[in-house]
Amino acid sequence: MGGRAERFDAAITGLGMVTPAGVGTAASWERIREGAGTAAVTVPELAGIAADFACRVQGFDPAAVLGRRRVLQFDRSSQLALAAALEAVADSGLDPESWDGARVGVVLGNGIGGAQTWETQHRRLLDSGPRRVSPRLIPMLSANMTAGYVSMEFGARGPSLVTATACASGTTAIGTARDLLRSGACDVVITGGAEAPLTPSLVAGFSQMGALSRRSDDIRAASRPFDAGRDGFVAAEGAAVLVLERAADARARGARIRAMVSGFGASADAYHATAPDPECTGAALALRAALADAGVGPDEVDHVNAHGTATVINDATEARLIREVLGDRALVTSVKGVTGHSLSAAGAIEAAVAALTLEESFVPPTANLEVPDPGIELDVVAKEGRETPVEVVVSNSFGFGGQNAVLLLTRS
């Protein structure tokens, strides 16, 4: 993607978050601001796996938010998505009863779909036979239903899309949502990402790849982005949803604008199924495209909300990318030290955090960064967050298959 002649600002007027850091935007942001440690718990269902812990959303009662009937019909990924969407739409001040639903779109990132439903129902098939498989299996399993159920909830009859670019999915969704506004196809887009991948099969698969931390003796310190002792990511679930409108429309109705999505870039490494290109060629294309799209120079970026998975190779490669394209001026943070890595939801959670960083002029710390990797020559915020003027934030996401997506957010 290349630059465009005129910048297009999409206003973020609503935020909703359901994450391991907390249920609701305020609770999630508070724990991320503190950076006290990884929000991980031991998961009984993962017993026997080398990584038998994960970042679950604690204190979330889906029945209280959605009603018991829908809890029984929705996979957990859809439960998380809808809960975040309900908060975001309420936060935006828009009234779904009065909006033109044909002009409202939904774009959510979800790479795996109803993983928990699939694993539960497959076990039921093996144990009890095909007649015991739920007739709701297919809609609960299908990844598109993450957006489908949100569109049904709000009467959003515009485009309803799910993006699947692995761990870049949430970021890709937000960039796609902005393009729908820019094209005139929609006036409002509900966008973000959700994932609920904490099943034995999936966690075992990541563990067998060597991607997960095995620090089971100290799980609060397990996710250590950019630390010299990092040994892998901590699997997580979660969701974040943003409501986007054209900036002029949001101002005209007197909305509170939390931040602007001003640039987006996407690319592919065309290199390897799981490893990043060590030369950063594809990732640099995405980052430079986001800068050009926003009309922002590399030296104008104040903060990078890094992908920062806490895997040895990915953190080192991303650090090289940031230094080569942006230099060493920008403050860098990875919130995965707290939240773990929620795959398709991660980019959406981090975009929401980027908006809050701009809104409050506060850069959160990178949890568990005790001994900085000497090969990473960046100003990575550790220990305590920093109160500092922030006008431009870059949020990076990189996924398996070499799929890269970068958002550039600016102060409203």
Describe what this molecule looks like in 3D.
With about 400 residues, the chain is of the alpha/beta class. The chain has helices at about 25-35, 60-65, 70-75, 75-90, 115-130, 135-140, 145-155, 170-185, 200-210, 245-250, 280-295, 310-325, 335-340, 345-360; strands at about 10-20, 20-25, 40, 55, 105-110, 160-165, 190-195, 240-245, 260-270, 305, 330-335, 360-365, 380, 385, 390-400, 405-410. The strands form three sheets. Strands 1, 2, 5, 6, 7, 8, 9, 10, 11, 13, 15 and 16 form a twelve-stranded mixed sheet that branches. The chain has a two-stranded antiparallel sheet with strand order 3-4. The longest helix is centred in the first third of the chain and has 17 residues, at about 75-90.
Q: What attributes does this structure have?
A:
412 residues, alpha/beta, twelve-stranded mixed beta sheet, globular
How many whole angstroms does the radius of gyration measure?
A: 20 Å
Calculate the mean pLDDT score and round it. 96
Question: Main beta sheet: strand number and arrangement?
Answer: 12 strands, mixed
Order of helices and strands: EEHEEHHHEHHHEHEHEHEHEHEHHEEEEE
Strand portion: 15-25%
Termini, distance in Å? Answer: 24 Å
Portion in helices: 25-40%
| Strand runs, count | 16
Parts with pLDDT < 50 across at least 5 consecutive residues: none
Backbone structural class: alpha/beta
Count of discrete alpha- or pi-helical segments spanning 4 or more residues: 14
Bulk shape: globular
